[in-house]
Write a structure and sequence with these properties.
This protein has a domain at 136-325: Rod shape-determining protein MreC, domain 1 (Thrombin, subunit H, Beta Barrel), CATH 2.40.10. Helices cover 37% and strands 21% of the residues. The chain has helices at residues 2-13, 29-50, 54-84, 88-129, 299-302, 309-313, 317-325; strands at residues 136-144, 152-155, 168-170, 175-182, 187-191, 198-203, 209-214, 222-225, 238-241, 253-261, 270-275, 284-288.
C-alpha cells in the first residue's frame, strides 16, 4: 500500500511515472540485421546451386496471381469507361482522318498503276519499232482538236525535230494517221478515222487492195471504198498498209474487218473495219521519218509561198504523194 500511496502522491505532485520496460535488455538491431542477411545469402546460394525453392516460387506466384489481377482492376475499369464514354466529336475526327488517309493511299495506288501501264505501253512501242525499216521519232500526244468534224491530234514534235508534212504516225498496235500541219515545236496529225483521210490498205490474207476512209456514221470505224462484189474479204481479216504512194510503211497493221455486206443491186460492197491503233487512249506514238530528213527552218514552214516555184520543188516526196492519196470529195460528200 505504501508503494501505491507513493505513486499516487507522486502523480499528484506532477512527477512522471517511470516505464521499467525501457530497461529490459534484448538483442541489438544490428545483430538481427546481420542474421537475416546471412540467412538470405545462404538461401540464395542453396537455391541457385540446388534449386530447392523452385516449387516454393511457383506456389507463391500462383497464390499472388489474384492479387495482381485485383490490383489491375482499376486500370481496366478506367480504360473500359474511356472506351464507352468516348465523345462523338472524337469519333467524327477519327473518321475524317481515316478518310483522308484512305484517299491518299488510293491516290498513291493509282499513280503506281498508271506508271505500270505507261511502262507497258512504252515497252510495246519499243517492240513495234523493231519491225519498221525507216527511222522513227518518239512523240507524245498533248492535245486533241476541239473541232467535232475534224479528227486531229497535236504531238510535241515539230519542224525543229525533223517532222515534215505527210509523215506517218504510228502507235504500238497500228497506224494512227498522217502529219497534216507542222509548226516549230508541235505538229497536227490527221487521224485515219477522219472522213477526209484515205489510207491504202491490203488484206493480209490474200493481198486484196482497197482504200480505207474514215466512216461518216461511226467515229471509231473505217469504210473500205470501191470494193467490188468479187473481191475476197471476210470479217476478221487483217488490213495492213500496202505501201502505195510510199507514205506509210508497208505491211504495218491498220485495221480489222468487222463486217462485209454485199448487195447484188449495188456495184460495190459495204465493208467496215475497226482501227487497231488505240486512238482514243494511247499517248505515246512515233513518227516515221525519212531516211535523210533534216530539221527545217521556221521560214520554210511559215511562208512557203515566198520562194515561189522553188519552194514547191523542194518539198519532200511524201507531201506530194500524200496529196495524191487524198481523194476528191465524192457526190455523196456533197
Amino acid at each position: 500500500m505504501a508503494g501505491y500511496g507513493y505513486n499516487f502522491r507522486s502523480r499528484q505532485r506532477g512527477t512522471p511515472a517511470i516505464d521499467n520496460t525501457l530497461f529490459i535488455k534484448g538483442v541489438a538491431l544490428e545483430y538481427r540485421a546481420l542474421t537475416f542477411i546471412f540467412l538470405s545469402v545462404c538461401i540464395m546460394f542453396a537455391d541457385s546451386r540446388f534449386g530447392y525453392l523452385e516449387k516454393v516460387r511457383f506456389g507463391l506466384g500462383f497464390a499472388t496471381a489474384p492479387v495482381y489481377w485485383v490490383a489491375d482492376v482499376p486500370t481496366r475499369v478506367s480504360l473500359w469507361i474511356d472506351d464507352v464514354f468516348v465523345s462523338r466529336t472524337d469519333l467524327l475526327q477519327e473518321n475524317e482522318l481515316l478518310r483522308e488517309q484512305l484517299l491518299i493511299s488510293r491516290r498513291e495506288l493509282q499513280l503506281v498503276e498508271s506508271l505500270t501501264s505507261e511502262n507497258n505501253r512504252l515497252l510495246e512501242l519499243r517492240e513495234a519499232t523493231q519491225s519498221i525499216g525507216g527511222k522513227v521519232l518518239p512523240a507524245e500526244i498533248i492535245n486533241i482538236s476541239p473541232d467535232p468534224y475534224s479528227k486531229r491530234v497535236l504531238i510535241n514534235k515539230g519542224a525543229r525535230d525533223g517532222v515534215v508534212i505527210g509523215q506517218a504516225l504510228l502507235d504500238a498496235n497500228g497506224l494512227m494517221g498522217q502529219v497534216h500541219e507542222v509548226l516549230s515545236y508541235t505538229s497536227w496529225v490527221l487521224l485515219v478515222t477522219d472522213f477526209h483521210h484515205v489510207t491504202p490498205v491490203e488484206v493480209n490474207r490474200n493481198g486484196e487492195r482497197a482504200l480505207a476512209r474514215g466512216s461518216r456514221t461511226t467515229a471509231s470505224e473505217l469504210e473500205l471504198e470501191f470494193v467490188t462484189q468479187t473481191q475476197d474479204m471476210r470479217a476478221g481479216d487483217l488490213l495492213v498498209s500496202s505501201g502505195m504512194g510510199q507514205v506509210y510503211p508497208k505491211n504495218y497493221p491498220v485495221a480489222e474487218i468487222i463486217s462485209v455486206y454485199a448487195d447484188a443491186g449495188q456495184d460495190f460492197a459495204v465493208v467496215k473495219a475497226r482501227p487497231l491503233a488505240q486512238i482514243a487512249s494511247t499517248r505515246h506514238v512515233m513518227v516515221v521519218l525519212e531516211k535523210e530528213t533534216a530539221p527545217i527552218e521556221d521560214s520554210s514552214i511559215r511562208d512557203p509561198a515566198a520562194a515561189g516555184a522553188e519552194a514547191d520543188a523542194s518539198l519532200p516526196l511524201p507531201v506530194a504523194q500524200g496529196q495524191v492519196i487524198r481523194l476528191a470529195p465524192t457526190p455523196d460528200d456533197r
